[in-house]
Amino acid sequence: MAHSQRITYHSTLAAAVVFLCLGSAPTWAKPAEAADPYDAARDAEAQLNYKQVIIQANKALEAANSHERLVNLYRILGTSNGVLGKGEDAVDAFTKLLAIDPDHHLPRGTSPKITAPFREAGGYWVDRPKGLQVLPTLPPEMAAGKPLSVPVKLDDPLQLAANVRLGYRMQGDVEWKTLTSPVGPNIAFLVPADQIVARPTDYNIELYFIALGSTGSELRLAGDPAAPLTVKVAGVHANETVVITTTNGTTTTTTTTEKKPNPILKKWWLWTAVGAVVVVGVGLGAGLGWYYSRDTSHVDFSITSRTGP
Q1: Backbone φ, ψ for residue 236 (5° rounding)
Q2: What are the residue boundaries of the structural domains of the chain, listed by start?
Q3: Taking the alpha carbons of 215, 219, 225, 228 in that order, is the dihedral positive or negative?
């Protein structure tokens, strides 16, 4: 009887240990889930988990992404679909990749499962080698106090863009100001005249343009904050009045004044020094003139002789 109780006790203890182990096992085995689908997609790519790459990358595309992140997302989507034999999806991802990064190349030694859909995607852009383009028309120079009108042409065969954004600032400023326009047949931006201030010397307006997708992702840029496009604003001469008319019809004027340095010819101490030099020069000249003009045709002298003590 006692032996039977010991068996029952040990069996119950073993069952409890197994239960605890099984109950906690899922907690130990479950990996930490990345908060950002972009990071999760990159992690899955590193683990060669291509199905998970596709799931997480598509989630990431639902948010606003920088241009660099967007390039990576389309690349890993094309790669993962190619590896899994999903040719059409791979071509679609690579076609979008080449739209926003037309100079993209796959690494040497890439599997034919990936290079084949990549080449097919490249065929779409044979006649459009520059991909999606943002083409602003900028004047080389403008006057202060005048508005800057910038028409923009968007070449977007895949119709990926929903908006175009302009970032601008005056040279020397830190903050960028932005304007956004929806995509349409006539895209144009107007930088107000009252923001193009008059300065005594030439300076630049710095600008960049971004084509944005429907989620706000950066598809393609013309210029960027680190290397912006520029328009020269001509400097205004001293005491010149600039008339500024704002978009609401209000007119203001501003006059630039430039304090010019006092010319050296107006310095009092210079003329004092010049006068002193002139006086000395005149005196010296008179003395030398007398010395050289005196009569030297005869010399007066006397001789005295003494004899004896």
Answers
A1: -105, 135
A2: 31-124, 133-256
A3: negative
Q: To which residue do tokens 């907690």 refer?
A: 27
Helix boundaries (H) for the chain: 2-29, 37-46, 50-60, 67-83, 87-100, 112-124, 268-293
Task: Collect all residues with Cβ–Cβ distance below 8 Å to 253 and sequence separation of at least 6.
Answer: 241, 242, 243, 244
Angstrom distances, CA of residue 49 to CA of 45, 55, 80, 304 = 6, 10, 9, 135
Give the model's pLDDT for residue 8: 47
Q: Could you tell me the two tokens for 24?
A: 């906690």
Fold (CATH) for 31-124:
1.25.40
Q: Bridge-partner residues for 149, per DSSP?
A: 190
- Comparing CA positions, the residue from 95, 56, 43, 60 lying closest to residue 216 is 60
Cα separation, 232 vs 201, in Å, equals 11
In angstroms, the CA 82 to CA 98 distance is 16
Structure tokens at 245: 């008319």
Assigned token pair, 201:
């010397």
**Length of the chain as a residue count:** 309
Backbone dihedral angles phi then psi of residue 144, each to the nearest 5 degrees: -70, 150
Q: Where are the beta strands (DSSP E) in 85-217?
A: 133-136, 141-143, 148-155, 163-170, 177-182, 187-191, 203-212
Q: State the Cα–Cα distance between residues 280 and 11, nearest whole angstrom.
A: 129
User: Rounded distance, CA 166 to CA 177, Å?
Assistant: 8
And the tokens for 299? 């010399």
Report the chain's C-alpha Rg in angstroms: 43
- Over residues 34-51, the pLDDT tens digits come to 579 999 999 999 999 999
pLDDT digits (tens, 9 = 90+) for 234-247: 998 765 555 555 55
Superfamily for the 133-256 domain: Immunoglobulins (2.60.40.10)
164 - beta bridge partners?
181, 211
